[in-house]
UniProtKB/TrEMBL annotation, chain A:
This is Ribonuclease P/MRP protein subunit POP5. It comes from Tichodroma muraria. Component of ribonuclease P, a protein complex that generates mature tRNA molecules by cleaving their 5'-ends. Also a component of the MRP ribonuclease complex, which cleaves pre-rRNA sequences. Its main location: nucleus. The keyword Nucleus applies. It comes from the Eukaryota. The keyword Nucleus applies.
From TrEMBL, chain B:
Pfam families: RNase_P_p30 (PF01876). One of its GO terms (molecular function) is RNA binding. Keywords: Acetylation, Nucleus, Phosphoprotein, rRNA processing, tRNA processing. It is found in: Nucleus, Nucleolus. The keyword Phosphoprotein applies. This is Ribonuclease P protein subunit p30. The lineage of its organism: Eukaryota, Metazoa, Chordata, Craniata, Vertebrata. It comes from Tichodroma muraria. Its main location: nucleus. GO terms for cellular component: nucleolar ribonuclease P complex.
Length: 164, 250
């Protein structure tokens, strides 16, 4: 069981073009990451990392991505993530970059981190709120963030209206 | 300005805006630095703390001739206005001078072409003792494959001499999307041959120390700077201050 240890890498997609978020889907992202690994670490790196590599979770609204890889090759993966420069989907390229947030051994630790991170992000959005309605929406989301037994993803509760 | 917005959202707590002076061109004068408060009327708050983000000004002198260094020795008023001074030596002699005698905070290491000289241990050790940091850029490595090779070879040859101490990694981002977050830059440090502890320091404590070195230079003699140590319980990526350099947009 220990031999199959995995690492889960949590990142967020940062881009200037709002349409980039729409093309966050597992195939496009997986290809972009694999391409970056191949460019930086060559065939050996790509082969090592591909063993147990998948995109586990995506949230197109917040741009959050959870990747999984084997524990032996997570350094290869993490060191290639800065080299992702764009996402490609439907023959369109959207420049972006990946910001690594957290590396954990289980999905649960990444989830806990994500809840905490989203809470601070919501707080920042709260500070930049321009009208009362948005303020109340965000406050409501903040108060309802928690880790429940059904593994509900707190990322879904974030409001992504024009305050970005 | 966009670059800075991205910096802040990604978790940096201090940014330095770089102004480059290349002496190969004629009539270079050191102008007063643009005051950050003119560019940003209100600075956002660092993620996770309640302090405002610091924006510093920085000057980089590209020197290819010993006469260019005279500018540093002169007590030009404008030089003192910059928070951080960096020098980019182009020859071995100048590298030696920069490490041993020049009053700078950072020595830039070329990452875009093969080094014309090899590093030697004596000047590097002297620089480390004097509190001068060596700077590596990462944006060229992200953009282009050839640059990547030069960056990695130059970085590794530097590491062999200095054992990874006193390294600062910065971007020379001209566009917001050329930036990378602090955790990622520390991972890049691993690629450059830094040991893991030093890689994290290259983004956080070393930058802070370079900033303080700049402050001591501004005041007449050394200063003692007391700082509340951040609680170790919190994650390093969000609380330890990091320093980034970005070129101002024309």
């Amino acid at each position: 069981h220990a031999a199959l240890s995995r690492r889960y890498v949590l990142c967020e997609v940062v881009s200037e073009d709002p349409r980039c978020r729409q093309c966050i889907e597992d195939r496009a992202l997986g290809l972009a990451v694999r391409d970056a690994i191949a460019r930086v670490h060559g065939d050996y790196g790509l082969a090592c990392c591909s063993i147990s590599f998948t995109v586990k979770y995506l949230n197109a609204y917040t741009g959050t991505v959870l990747l999984r890889c084997r524990k032996d090759s997570y350094r290869l993966l993490c060191s290639s993530l800065p080299f992702v420069r764009y996402l490609e989907s439907r023959a369109q390229r959207y420049p972006c970059f990946l910001n690594t947030l957290h590396v954990g051994g289980t999905i649960r630790t990444c989830q806990k981190f994500l809840i905490q991170y989203n809470t601070t992000q919501l707080l920042r959005l709260l500070q930049n709120c321009t009208n009362e309605e948005e303020r109340q929406c965000i406050q409501k989301s903040l108060l309802s963030c928690s880790l429940t037994e059904e593994q509900s993803q707190s990322g879904d509760e974030e409001e992504d209206d024009g305050t970005e | 300005q966009n670059i800075l917005t991205v910096c802040f959202s990604v978790g940096y707590s201090a940014v330095a805006l770089n102004h480059v002076i290349d002496f190969k061109e004629k009539k270079q004068e050191i102008i007063k630095p643009v005051s950050p408060s003119e560019l940003f009327p209100s600075l956002p708050i660092v993620q996770g703390t309640s302090k405002r983000i610091k924006v510093l000004t920085r000057l980089t002198l590209v020197v290819s001739d010993p006469s260019h260094c005279n500018l540093l020795r002169s007590t030009s008023a404008n030089i003192r206005l910059y928070d951080i001074i960096a020098v980019f030596p182009k020859t071995e002699k100048l590298f030696h001078i920069a490490c041993t005698t020049l009053d700078v905070d950072l020595v830039c290491i070329n990452v875009t072409e093969k080094l014309p000289f090899y590093f030697r241990r004596p000047p590097v050790n002297m620089a480390i003792d004097r509190g001068i940091y060596f700077e590596l850029l990462y944006t060229p490595a992200i953009k282009d494959s050839t640059m990547r090779r030069y960056t990695i070879s130059n970085a590794i040859s530097l590491m062999q001499i200095c054992k990874g101490k006193n390294i600062v990694i910065s971007s020379a981002a001209e566009r917001p999307l050329e930036l990378r977050g602090p955790y990622d830059v520390a991972n890049l440090g691993l690629l450059f041959g830094l040991p893991e502890g030093e890689a994290k320091a290259a983004v956080s404590t070393n930058c802070r120390a370079a900033m303080l070195h700049g402050e001591t230079r501004k005041s007449a003699c050394g200063i003692v700077y007391t700082v509340k140590k951040p609680r170790r319980v919190e994650e390093e990526e969000t609380t330890v201050p990091a320093c980034k350099k970005a070129k101002t947009q024309a």
